[in-house]
Amino acid sequence: MNILEHRALRGPNYYSRYQAIYMRLDIEDLEQKPSDTVPGIAEKLQAVFPSIYGHRCSVGEPGGFLQRVRNGTYAGHMVEHLAIELQNLVGFTVGYGKTVDSYDKGVYHVVYRYRDEATGLAAGEAAVAIVRKLYDGGHVDLEPVIAHLKEVRDAHALGPSTGTIVDAAKARDIPFYNLTAGTSYTQLGHGVKQRRFQATVTDGSGIIGHSIADDKDWTKQILGDAGVAVPKGCTCYSWDEVKDAAEWIGWPVVTKPLAGNHGRGVTTDIGNLDDLKSGYEAALARVRDNSGAVIVESYIKGEDHRMLVVGGKLIAAARRRPAHVTGDGKSTIQTLIEKANEDPRRGVGHENVLTQIHVDVQTHRMLEQAGLTLDSVPGDGDMVFLKSTANISTGGTATDLTDEVHPDIRFSMERIARHVGLDVIGIDLLAETLTKPLSEQSAGVVEVNAGPGFRMHMAPTHGTPRPVGQHVVDMLFPDPTDNGRIPITAITGTNGKTTTTRLTSHILRQTGHSVGMGCTGTVEIDNHVILRGDYSGPAAAQAVLREPTVEHAVLEVARGGIMRRGLGFDECDVGVLLNIASDHLGERDIHTLDELARCKTVVVDAVKKEGGYCVLNADDPLVMEHGTYWARGEIIYFTMNPDNPDLQDHLSEMRMVLTVRNGRIVLLRGKVVVDIVDVNDVPIAFEGHAPFNVQNAMAAAAVALAHGIEIDDIRAGLLTFHPTPAQMPGRTNYFEADGVKCLIDYGHNVPALEALEPLVKGLGQKRRIGVSTAPGNRRDEDLAALGAQLAKMCNVVYVYESDARGRAEGEVAKLIRDGAAAAGSQSEVHLIMNEQEAVDRAIGEAQPGDFLLLLVDDIKGTTERLKGRSFPVKADLAQA
């Protein structure tokens, strides 16, 4: 088998409303070998994957997939199910999948859900290898496969603290994004509503508070000045200073690096110079700068407690005990450690709620102080401590005591958070108990932590788990109805997408909103270009939704982006389907208009059900058939026919329709008629000569209505949007100079030219000179039809070639030229391979009274060449 394509679809897509992995799989010789031709393959499969029995498949009952295998299915279908099950086996619960054939024999589209993208892709590759072995009768050793997938999972998965915050956000329907690969830097929400955090440090954490927490000496000074009990101590910069400090403080003492975390380099209960030397060296090794600063402070006898304050409120308290084992009277300490590490809750690093216990220098020192070795056999019930600090990351355990915290202690902890200035803070408190005030016992705060770990609270070894992630999310988004989302408008169709996207953005900006827009050509934030290129796909959604100032997102969505990566967002507030016409057929297994329609309707299928709107073109039969079927939320239709019989039921239900009546764009709702604007006053309508732009204007107005924009503001937006390179680059840009009329447009397909034809013939009453091309990935018949349409519209045509896309040089231009000739037209057709030369020839050919139709890729360059001509240029062109 051969994987031809393999990628993640990040959002609603052609195959699923959810994110999924797409694999284009050639099963090669296995096309001739359905599973029922391989004796015992179902039994082998179940022996390797016992849990595969739970896969119901289309049978609809446990064991259903195995029935399909016994009765005969294809290798691609088996790959789908194994890719799903492999993810389940490493902790990602997924269930959806589908496998469909393609137009190429033996090639299948395999689609399956994922939680983590890298793990999902790796599972697909492993599934292909396993299915091949099952067919060949080879041995399948699942253990190394699972081990590898776990490595992939751990390399990409969020840590437990970050993960619990993300899970709490998902529970509130707040979207999230990992902003930097390989880190926990995460964004919750969109645009202006977003909040960001890394691990458990939020964007609201004060940098001064973070600095205080990172400097233990500074921390003690701040807290001591505030009357908080802290251990006596000082900062030392040499071994001699450390010895003097210990004598001054009095034994026992603690050593720790001035700046540190997770208990690294901390040694406690030091009672002699030898242990002091070891503790000093351990602390020195963990100093994060060249200062050599080590703290020596008094050792406070008492239990180690971690107090977690979020948003100024104590939300969790845990008693931590260092890594330890409890004797049974028979086993050695080494054996007890090995048994403890068999606990499934213990993992490597932060992968599980507890961490494996590792024997190190500190372990040997602790045992030596107790007169023990690893070979010693402790008595039944005797507790042997293996570390001096109680951090979970070094194998410690935690017991939740949140409900036992005395009110005075609660107040003290919340007061400490205010003094340090952190919105999320972990406070290390040594105390005999949490049930009585600190003043009545031996107690002291030994450290505060910015970015504290949550594992001990979310999954304590003993006691009640605390929803710490939920508390963080509630702090970041205090309004329980706020899901951190900004309004998203997604616009698709064969033609008109860019114009409608730009016009919609213009109307929203006119009402004072900060708009992020992605379209063919640019990504713009509040009318400022931040990226150039084709941004009619999920990359634009990513850029816009991460921008901190954006209040509205308006996104052009093209067929290619949907098929390659999905939408890039999970749902939108308004989805627009302008039209469905023949273009790009034959690409990515989209060969028919019905298949193209399903691709385009992904946008309206992604509209949220409650409060969402779909804007549909009622004049397009395919939009009416497919768009209406897949649309979610409320539908707003637009039509050039005010008496459209298909909309009468819609109007009778008091739904909205935009149409043209007596030369004016109006809103119909039931029997109510609301006047919006005169068509002749809309600049992009060209006094009605551009009906396609009248439709685009109605679509944009419908989007504005869906967002609650007032009619007067919609009217103002329509009246102030002009077909110039500044506002609509490459879309019906019209100039006049020295008696020559010129229209620049990007249209490269037959439906686009058919839409332009009334405008071209209405403006060009005499000789019409055209320049055009098309990408080479169009079908032969599409290129020939383009030539025929050009010949129908123009007296002289210059055909150039800019993007052969795998075809031989000159093949595209020749097909367009031959199409023009086959149409029986009297038009002159010239092949000039270079775009700039073709434009220059057309401009040189033009005489007063002629009309230039320049269908080009280089909009800016063409505009500049027009400016440079010798004939006088009107102000609108000179300023473009």
Question: How many helices does DSSP assign?
Answer: 30
Radius of gyration: 35 Å
Strand fraction band? Answer: 15-25%
What's the arrangement of strands in the largest beta sheet?
25-24-23-26-22-27-28-29-30-31-32
Poorly predicted runs are: 870-880
How many strands in all? Answer: 38
What share of the residues lie within helices?
25-40%
Structural category is alpha/beta
The gross shape turns out to be: elongated
The biggest beta sheet reads: 11 strands, mixed
Mean pLDDT: 91
Distance between the termini: 55 Å
Commentary on this structure:
The chain is of the alpha/beta class. The protein is 35% helix and 22% strand. It is elongated. The strands form eight sheets. Strands 25-24-23-26-22-27-28-29-30-31-32 form an eleven-stranded mixed β-sheet, sandwiched between helices. The C terminus is likely disordered. Helix 3 crosses helix 4. It is built from 30 helices and 38 strands.
